[in-house]
Design brief:
7-stranded mixed beta sheet, 9 helices, METTL22, single chain, alpha/beta, SAM-dependent_MTases_sf, globular
Length: about 280
């Protein structure tokens, strides 16, 4: 059987690829600091530039740099080892809307290499970073957390969570249900995984703790001879499954015109969705 590999577009868009580590790559993901992160005596060592009158030079945006270990190409079932545009779109949204994430307990599903969770940790009270533990992905996330610890301001932990296994241990269930913000980037790419993802969200949203979900993805279009048109099958399958399961969710599409802090091509087919459970909203 032929094995096909896929490569994230970030590989061609990021010019800061560096060393190899056991077939992985460590890349520098440079980002601009939002104005609220630029302050005197910042523990990250941000240098404050001043003009000739000793005033802060607000025109010059300071930059940070995350060092992220990842793969540049994988087989389809291991794409979580790569960095995709959706993770960077979600990271931009977090940095653009600090009040939505500050002092919150944040849960990321399908966290991959952990980039979005690390960005969430700039603001959150606690970040729970989860993924299925294959190909050493949880250890990779922990390495990325360690190499970027100077930026991390919150408690951050990693846990295994498999969309295809909803039989969670009691401690894990209690931990997950504490979260009030759920993040997911580029997890809708496979029919079976999409089904499991919807079921996982349904279980998490069936909680006494009100939650809001942010899902970032890039619609992948293909031409089908059956329909004689170009469609985005996985995204459309995701929407159909929500309807089929009769999930009482409020789905909102967030405009993606917020500032771009990371360097990537924010293509027009990128989507950011905000989901709430309507029943939960009505009880609060």
């Amino acid at each position: 059987m032929t094995r096909y590999t896929v490569t994230s577009e970030i590989f061609t868009e990021n010019e800061n690829l560096s060393e190899d580590r056991n077939s992985n790559t460590i890349s520098s993901f440079v980002f601009k600091y939002p104005s609220y992160m630029i302050k005197q005596n910042n523990p990250n060592g941000i240098v404050i530039n001043r003009d000739k009158d000793d005033d802060i030079d607000i025109d010059r945006q300071q930059e940070g740099k995350l060092l992220i270990e990842h793969r540049t190409s994988t087989e389809l079932q291991h794409v979580g080892l790569q960095v995709w545009r959706g993770a960077l779109l979600l990271a931009d949204y977090i940095l653009s809307n600090p009040d939505l994430f500050r002092d919150k307990i944040v849960l990321e599903l399908g966290a991959g290499v952990g980039l979005t969770s690390i960005v969430a940790s700039f603001l959150a009270k606690e970040v729970i970073c989860t993924d299925i533990n294959v190909k050493g992905i949880l250890k990779l996330i922990r390495r990325n957390i360690e190499r970027n610890k100077s930026y991390i301001k919150s408690k951050i932990c990693t846990n295994e969570l498999d969309f295809l296994n909803l039989d969670w241990p009691t401690f894990t269930k209690q931990n997950l249900h504490q979260a009030t913000v759920i993040l997911a980037a580029d997890v809708i790419y496979d029919e079976t995984i999409t089904t499991g993802f919807v079921q996982t969200l349904a279980k998490l949203l069936n909680s006494e703790t009100p939650k809001v979900v942010y899902i970032a993805l890039e619609k992948r279009f293909v031409f089908t001879t059956a329909d004689m048109e170009t469609v985005a099958p996985m995204f459309e399958d995701f929407l159909r499954r929500i309807e089929r399961e009769q999930l009482n969710w409020d789905v909102e599409y967030v405009k993606i015109d917020f500032p771009r802090y990371f360097n990537y091509n924010r293509v027009k087919h990128m989507i950011l969705m905000k989901i709430r459970n309507k029943l939960t909203e009505q009880c609060n």
